[in-house]
Description:
By secondary structure, the protein is α/β, with parallel strands linked by helices. The protein has helices spanning 27-49, 58-70, 79-99, 118-122, 133-158, 164-176, 184-213, 238-248, 287-294, 311-314, 342-349, 368-373, 375-384, 404-412, 452-465, 485-496, 514-524, 532-540, and strands spanning 219-222, 230-234, 254-257, 276-279, 298-300, 317-320, 329-331, 361-364, 389-392, 417-421, 436-437, 440-441, 443-445, 476-481, 503-505. Helices cover 43% and strands 10% of the residues. The radius of gyration is 22 Å and the shape is globular. The relative contact order is 0.12. The site of iron/sulfur cluster has 13 residues, from loops.
Amino acid sequence: MNMFCYQCQETAKGTGCTVQGVCGKSATVSNLQDLLVYTLKGISEIVVKGNVDVKSIGRLNHEVLNSLFMTITNANFDDGAIKAQIAKMIGLRNELRNKVKAGNLHDAAVFEAEPEDMLNKAMLVGVLATENEDIRSLRSIITYGLKGMAAYTQHALNLGKEDSEIYDFIYKALAATLDDTLSADDLVALVLKTGEYGVKAMALLDEANTSKYGNPEITEVNIGVRNNPAILISGHDLSDLEQLLEQTKGTGVDVYTHSEMLPAHYYPAFKKYDHFVGNYGNAWWKQTTEFETFRGPILFTTNCIVPPKNEEVRRRIFTTGSAGLPGCRHIEADEKGRKDFSEIIELAKTLPAPQEIENGSIVGGFAHNQVLALADKVVEAVKSGAIRKFFVMAGCDGRMKSREYYTEFAKALPKDTVILTAGCAKYRYNKLNLGDIGGIPRVLDAGQCNDSYSLAVIALKLKEVFGLEDINKLPIAFNIAWYEQKAVIVLLALLYLGVKNIHLGPTLPGFLSPNVAKVLVDRFGIAGIGSVDEDINLFLA
Ligand code: SF4
Ligand code: SF3
């Protein structure tokens, strides 16, 4: 075994990547990511045992977020960047340890590793170092949930919003994954607590996005192209997008969104840029062909990167933030968070305009504020029976053939049902023209995966309007597609909010041991997916 990683839905054989990642991650990168997470756990133990006030360690908080984000699926494939981050975190860890009295510490809080022996150390500290499979499973769920939480917290931070309670929780939960005295029941409780903080992190990001850029509103987004040179921006970071739009103003270079950046078009603040043309392509996994036809530079602000086989494409890729790809230029922020994208803009000017692969438009912008503005109409449609049921189909897309299920499911849903979506899962059905119900489109896109928070806000509001005690009495079914660790925090957040009977697909996580899976089934009614017809009958029964 060269490595072991089972954090995403595409993990080899549904059990774990052991030679190299299905995602394209090398064994070296995977092992280094394990060591980086291990280092973070050690830091967390020092913070907890040393009673450190998280408000006094701002830089460390930010670097912990960045480190966790670097280990999310498809975010960073650069072994050099991960080694440098481990060295940085060991340095910050030692500085902190020298300042506080933390008592007896775990190896994670004291080990030393020079770059040349990091890999040897890494081989000893991965997921499999926990022998009991149930404890391993629960520790993994918590760690993956924290990765998703860190990603959303970092986006909020980039817009100037922080919450020390979230940092506090991240340290406590990471430290708990080193604690051999905790029982499986203790860890199950911590899994739910992670969901509670997931809600806080998504609410914080929602507040950061909407206070800066306004509330998303119904918007028609162009999916065709113009005849100017252009830059494609991918990932989830709106602050990077804003800076790119500002710097490309008046340069003759257009900007298009890719994959999870699509919902940026729904925010009022970005509508003033007339060179912000539209959305190019589809979900992340189609980038292998769509970047060839785009022809201009591509800026990755976060995941999902697919390491390109085509060297010409690689030369046009830039990364920033926690993202990284070897051989590609990485743009760092200065101490004020400003980034200089001039190199990308200059490159764009030398390259041809994108080749059109689609045309027309799609409609989105149904985050909580917009849907609640239409609440009367929605409630009336439910009361009159015009809308029989809502299907929350938020989450991720991926390349597995079995995901065709979601397109077929959307097509087969009766015409009196509405899909509520968020995340890149939407690309499976957002171009199907499923029509509307009395002016309410049958696919309501709230935004990025973090905007699943919006869907929860909408559900809670409907519960109030209909005077229900239990969110599960609403005419809403949950058929969620997952892929990476942001979907893990979204799922844990829904469980914390009391949502039951969530169907999760296309396969259940490889990191659920049979006993832990049984807890999720028994306590929360979590289920996998079946055939489209069976599932629709089940949901509508
Ligand atoms: Fe495998 Fe997914 Fe881990 Fe990549 S992130 S190595 S595909 S489990
Ligand atoms: Fe997609 Fe990677 Fe998860 Fe933000 S871009 S949803 S998979």
